[in-house]
């Protein structure tokens, strides 16, 4: 019997944006480690938002788990997990270590909050695919939905996304979660997305259990028209298909993770 009781990795899971994706969690704490406290977060409330980076799990310990994987089909090795992966100080080191032992592409799903920092951008530059959050076009909506840690400013995040897009040679996507509070600002968000210039835009609404209700399909199709008009390649959670993938990690491991990759 192969080992299915992993501590730091989970899946592979079928992902509407990544195909078959093996999740890697460099945070791996029972509590959420994040600089945001989004209203739609699947991990519950965050009473201790943070912006300081730290090593939560040693790179070698994560690599040992990955080396123990049986032969399995994976499209992406994805850094996500129980919070914001760029808070892990060893993110870049882990990406480089992974590249030495695996052939699959490497993605990072980030909330964009720390991208203004050069050390964070340098870490993200080591990935093949960066999926970065942008849920708002104004300061007010950013504060209302993402509820950022003190010192994380909307304008700073937008500038950092724009700069990173110019610098990053890999595949770059903006992920946008639409809920009641931002659905009427889709046009403004699409204007901003057009200025940033991602390879694709991923339009999401919370379909997993959380404190927000998902928007219906017709609202999401309407929202998508704004992005299409800008000439952006837009994919949405309702239209994108999912691969059939059999996870290696046990049900308990998958349940612990919670967050969608
Ligand atoms: S949804 Fe993601 S970015 Fe938002 S609070 Fe949860 S873990 Fe953090």
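^ structure tokens above, recovered residues below v
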């Amino acid at each position: 019997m192969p080992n299915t009781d992993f501590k730091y990795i989970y899946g592979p899971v079928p992902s509407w944006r990544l195909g078959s994706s093996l999740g890697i969690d460099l945070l791996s704490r029972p509590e959420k480690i994040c600089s945001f406290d989004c209203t739609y977060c699947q991990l519950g409330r965050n009473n201790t938002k943070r912006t300081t980076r730290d090593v939560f799990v040693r790179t070698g310990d994560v690599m040992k788990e990955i080396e123990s994987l049986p032969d399995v089909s994976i499209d992406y090795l994805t850094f996500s997990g129980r919070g914001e992966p760029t808070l892990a100080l060893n993110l870049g080191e882990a990406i480089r270590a992974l590249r030495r032992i695996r052939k699959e592409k490497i993605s990072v799903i980030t909330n964009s909050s720390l991208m203004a920092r050069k050390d964070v951008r340098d870490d993200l530059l080591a990935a093949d695919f960066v999926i970065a959050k942008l849920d708002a076009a104004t300061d007010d909506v950013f504060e209302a939905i993402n509820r950022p840690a003190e010192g994380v400013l909307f304008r700073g995040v937008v500038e950092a996304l724009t700069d990173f897009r110019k610098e990053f040679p890999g595949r770059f996507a903006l992920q946008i979660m639409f809920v009641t509070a931002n659905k009427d600002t889709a046009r403004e968000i699409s204007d901003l997305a057009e200025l940033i210039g991602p390879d694709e835009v991923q339009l999401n609404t919370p379909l997993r259990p959380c404190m927000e209700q998902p928007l219906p399909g017709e609202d999401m199709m309407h929202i998508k028209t704004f992005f299409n008009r800008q000439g952006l390649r837009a994919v949405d959670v309702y239209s994108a298909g999912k691969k059939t993938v059999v996870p290696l990690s046990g049900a308990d491991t998958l349940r612990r993770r919670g967050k969608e990759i």
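The longest strand covers residues 9-15.
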